[in-house]
Amino acid sequence: MVLEKGCILALKAFNSVLEKFPNATMTIIGSGSQRNYIENYIKSNGIEGAVTLLGTVTGQELVNELCKHRTMVIPSIWNEPFGMVALYGLAYCENVISTRVGGLPEAVGGFGIIVNPRIEDI
């Protein structure tokens, strides 16, 4: 949950998803300096029931959690050299949506959806 990973971007996009699919849910895995900001964003937008913040999850627990989800969104806004998270998404989720930054398009290859890091594209 750091600025560069684009979590707020994903949450803003998720607001649009909820307008069309009010029963949709979102799980955020990870930790970082923006956690309080993210928690406040979730509360101020009234989406506490739709968004779960898991914190850091690793190993088999991470695999189990990813297998519960149909889609992984990787909303990075910085040039990641290689998105290891993309490989996890490809292995354990049905769909991967990733932003077109850094090494993410290469990591996702032709197996996911690559979008610009904008709310309307995600």
Give me some keywords for this one.
single chain; about 120 residues; three-stranded parallel beta sheet
User: Main sheet, how many strands, which sense, barrel?
Assistant: 3 strands, parallel
Shape: globular
Tell me the strand order in the biggest sheet: 3-4-5
Distance between the termini: 18 Å
Helix count from the secondary structure assignment? 5
List the helices and strands and how they pair.
Blueprint: H1 7-20, E1 26-29, H2 35-44, E2 51-55, H3 59-67, E3 71-74, H4 84-92, E4 95-99, H5 104-108, E5 113-115
Parallel strand pairs: 1-2, 3-4, 4-5
Question: Could you explain the architecture of this structure?
Answer:
This protein is of the alpha/beta class and 122 residues long. Helix content is 39%, strand content 17%. The chain is built from five helices and five strands; from the N terminus they run αβαβαβαβαβ. The chain has helices at residues 7-20, 35-44, 59-67, 84-92, 104-108, and strands at 26-29, 51-55, 71-74, 95-99, 113-115. A three-stranded parallel beta sheet has the order 3-4-5. Strands 1-2 form a two-stranded parallel ribbon. α4 links the parallel β3 (71-74) and β4. The chain is globular. The mean pLDDT is 96.
In short:
The chain is an alpha/beta fold.
